[in-house]
Amino acid sequence: MELSSVSGIKVAVVGCGHGELDTIYATLEVECEAKGFPLSDLDFLIICGDFQAIRNELDLNCMSVPHKYRKLGDFHKYYSGAAQAPVLTIVVGGNHEASNYLFELYHGGWLAPNIYYLGAAGVVRYGPWRIAGISGIYNPRNYHKPHSERLPYDRDDIRSVYHVREYDVERLLLLRSPVEIALSHDWPAWVELFGEHEKLFAAKPHFLASALGDSLGSKPSTELLGHLRPSYWFSGHMHVKFSATVEIGEGLGINDVLRLLDDVPDKLKPILPRPSVKGKTPTASLSATKTEFLALDKVGSPTFQWLEVRDLECSPRADSAAPSPKGTGTGKFSLTYDEEWLAVTRACASGLRIADPETLVVAPSTTAMTKVSAASVDKERKWVRESIVEKGLLTIPLNFTAHAPVHSPDLAVVPNMQPLEYPNQQTAQFCELLQIPDKFTL
Prior knowledge:
seven-stranded mixed β-sheet; manganese; metal ion binding; zinc; RNA lariat debranching enzyme activity
């Protein structure tokens, strides 16, 4: 299949997974058949956080969830190999996760066969489509901090570990090529004002209270929305289905987008945002003028609220590093690394600050994010093209291994006992591919 002949893909989107993989896949099969095609025709499934990749009972104690609500869920079967994901599944993290496991895969990787986590932040390709994601939720108290959390987590760590960090947002803001699909767990702040916000606030009065207090949604995600301008943005977290269309013009930055909100009715003007984030003007290459935003509910609500199957139409781009289909006649593409994102990751590698697992001390950064220039990314992109692209190494390897104990009824777990921190070979191999330090090694 030629890239120039590709005009759309079949995609399913789930809001919050909450560990209900069996229900998700079974319901998805029914929904696909109702639309007149088999599940095997679906290109991929997106889950917008609270995925809950719990491998065993120990992982439950690394979740920020009250004890009475903690449950093992279905993922352990997919991790152990007892079950197989029937469709490529792409996920971001939320605020109710086995954060210890996601932290092992900070740069992204396979949580289980056919289930790919985008990392704390990440960009991958499915054929000509670029998919960008940011994991966690925004909390201004921890936004500018490094990751000081290492196992065992204390009461504060178990919450702060899933908070979005400026480092990851700044990396995504270095992108200069178009992104078709973007994922986050919490909504971009103020995106509700581009949809039927009056109905939303009437149904969810506490949303209005949060909006009036300027605390509804993620301001960094708004900045990313204004910069990346993807064709589609999907989120979960708020446990409600909501859509909006954000229309922006050529050359507009996020502050320009926010000024468009002056057109809302007078009675809503008291909640107009006063942005505290610095706006960035996107480059001309990020030329989309409309983003379709869709948020979905959690599994367990009526199906139409938490699951949507749809055809996504994007304009394919025959630029560098576009991969080939998996096999003749399949119509499916392999998931691949993104050339520009690999270059950004290399350019920013020395700025990643996490705690040493033995001393729990965070070393000072040798590269401030503000010093990572477009020229630095261009230099690293040349290295990526020569060292990875031209050597045919862009396809994401199917290198999942189950290195943590799989679920067993015989596993004795003391209340609040936490697991060991496991070195993840996917992270080690990714760092080796990019020739950057593996700061997650033990």
